[in-house]
What we know:
homodimer, oxidoreductase activity, acting on the CH-OH group of donors, NAD or NADP as acceptor (chains A, B), EC 1.1.1.411 (chains A, B), alpha/beta, N-(1-d-carboxylethyl)-l-norvaline Dehydrogenase, domain 2, NADP binding (chains A, B), disordered N terminus, globular
Amino acid sequence: xxxxxxxxxxxxxxxxxxxxxxxxxxxxxxxxxxxxxxxxxxxxxxxxxxxxxxxxxxxxxxxxxxxxxxxxxxxxxxxxxxxxxxxxxxxxxxxxxxxxxxxxxxxxxxxxxxxxxxxxxxxxxxxxxxxxxxxxxxxxxxxxxxxxxxxxxxxxxxxxxxxxxxxxxxxxxxxxxxxxxxxxxxxxxxxxxxxxxxxxxxxxxxxxxxxxxxxxxxxxxxxxxxxxxxxxxxxxxxxxxxxxxxxxxxxxxxxxxxxxxxxxxxxxxxxxxxxxxxxxxxxxxxxxxxxxxxxxxxxxxxxxxxxxx
Amino acid sequence: xxxxxxxxxxxxxxxxxxxxxxxxxxxxxxxxxxxxxxxxxxxxxxxxxxxxxxxxxxxxxxxxxxxxxxxxxxxxxxxxxxxxxxxxxxxxxxxxxxxxxxxxxxxxxxxxxxxxxxxxxxxxxxxxxxxxxxxxxxxxxxxxxxxxxxxxxxxxxxxxxxxxxxxxxxxxxxxxxxxxxxxxxxxxxxxxxxxxxxxxxxxxxxxxxxxxxxxxxxxxxxxxxxxxxxxxxxxxxxxxxxxxxxxxxxxxxxxxxxxxxxxxxxxxxxxxxxxxxxxxxxxxxxxxxxxxxxxxxxxxxxxxxxxxx
Lengths: 309, 309
């Protein structure tokens, strides 16, 4: 089901990385470390300049970055940005070689992933649906988890780059959309767990419990989740500098609602969780760390949490 | 914060265990193994007969079991049963020695735990608020987690029995109610996580994903929870024989709603989860395994899960 990372056998391939944010920069760095010739591109000129100063190559547009590339790795936030990179003005579809592969890592509705793949494949290029998870540090170490699906040719073309970026590569199906669907199931759970952790820890504080003891007890008990364990230290420290922002789950739980409504499948638990992220964004914390949902509960209810003035 | 189990230094103490269900029977067995003289009592005569056949002593009522006991361990489902065992007809308060300790393990509203403690302490006995977690197997092995709070005298009296029953003993405060409050926070999270896991896996099945692959991916990803990992195998196997029943979370998330409403603290995520347990109970699965929430989602939406005819 997954492959250990291995040295690439096509270390001279040329890769374009579109999007040099915290994830994309680390992925581009991992690709360079594995021996690829990497051209970076970003809407922020500073990010490109930094990448060039580190020894990479820079490009002014996706089209320019993709010229002569065998592999394009797209590391942007959503479906709209992915579509613009592919088919917008100065998009990669203008220049990308026939038989090259476009690796899309944005989290999106599986239906849109299928549509983008179909549209690109009609032009003779390959599309790999490959959402990522693992955070900036693991991106920089080449130790992401990648949830990939696509045709055999797309996998074959992409594999050396995937091996350079991922510690775990799940191969989840032979068409675009499957990777996206697995990622959305993960995001449903992750979002609910952050909202539940926030509800629980703020309610515990309201009852006068020592929330450091709550953290100790819960992480050793059946109520634990990966997100409780990972995010609640931000609440204990009163530190809401964004590692991952509230707006990410406004987006991802929103996609879940759209998918579920289209499928006539009720998802009331994740619908409630989405409202809590929305309420947190509405209170002005959309760009803060997603553990800010706990701060929103505390503010609404007049409950004191660490870091309050 | 917690003590490793150690051999009791008062191995000749007499303990009454009220409630010989799957948890109580195991706890009574662990106490006997540690050298206590244990008298068991249960509303089901068969359970008492089995305990006597195993070498324990039996009693016909809580009052009879508690006569001459130094420690009473109450292992029943809720606050109402606990109150009946304490103060009802043939309750332990009729016979229990002055200075003995009553260890209450039922999950209940902290306000009720405080009231019962106050009422018993007024008669010269000690009350230890000591909810448990860990399941039947760990009960039988003397490896429960116990979330305890109470006065110093209650802890001193109870400690040999706690050491015999628990692998982890959390000492969470010097008055009844704190243990109950920590347990309720755990139950809030546990209940939401079961409902979210059920929503996610049924939605994944609806999208045509291989739910065994979903299990493999999620348990290695940020969407994981203790409950997802523990309960979803029941869905994969189509096996809803009750390890823990839907009705337990109807009760526990109901207590959360009562506590939160009294505290004027909104808990929308756990409120949504409670509705899913209620819906599952309404569909006739209240006594089935709590992973039946996934079956409810599947039935409502016409989604096929393993084990369906």
